[in-house]
Structure to design on (179 residues):
């Protein structure tokens, strides 16, 4: 989306004045994620995710955090995504008001997409936008603007054999070509 490209460029420029941390062993990472989470929950009027959520994500070899700190060392924006095989999946994004104002959330998500590609991902799945919920309309709009393709997948199928995998992949490719 044209607007998103502009916002990503502005956010990347804003990231020049600060530090990007993508090391899950950073000593204060969970504490800083909890600071961002409290702000996100207050802004969106939802219950905050707890320490266990972040410990679980950061304890997994498949999950990768990215946190941007301003020059004063305060967290401004964070993204967590997972990578399994060639598919990266977006799990978490939060920014302070200042981080949103400086468009760090979009730049950081874009940076996560690039990092996942460097790690071998061929797809970056933004996930379901939950458009049916009143408080998720902005999230849905955000994800649609960041996406290049939208795929509806109401049911998840897990192939149990090589034949099942081949058949499922063939059907998915056929459906994507029809769009």
């Amino acid at each position: 989306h044209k607007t998103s490209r502009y916002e990503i460029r502005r956010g990347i420029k804003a990231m020049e004045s600060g530090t990007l941390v993508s090391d899950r062993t950073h000593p204060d990472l969970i504490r800083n994620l909890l600071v961002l989470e409290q702000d996100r929950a207050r802004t969106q009027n939802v219950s905050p995710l707890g320490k266990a959520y972040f410990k679980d994500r950061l304890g997994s070899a498949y999950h990768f955090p990215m946190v941007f700190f301003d020059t004063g060392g305060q967290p401004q924006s964070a993204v967590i995504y997972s990578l399994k095989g060639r598919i990266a999946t977006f799990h978490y994004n939060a920014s302070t008001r200042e981080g949103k104002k400086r468009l760090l959330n979009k730049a950081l998500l874009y940076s996560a997409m690039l990092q996942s590609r460097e790690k071998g991902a061929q797809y970056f799945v933004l996930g379901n936008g939950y458009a049916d919920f009143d408080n998720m309309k902005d999230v849905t709009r955000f994800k649609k603007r960041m996406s290049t393709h939208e795929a509806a997948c109401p049911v998840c199928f897990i192939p149990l054999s090589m034949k099942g995998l081949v058949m499922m992949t063939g059907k998915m490719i056929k459906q994507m070509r029809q769009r």
The two ends are 18 Å apart (CA to CA). The helical segments are 2-14, 29-44, 51-59, 97-101, 104-118, 137-146, 162-178.
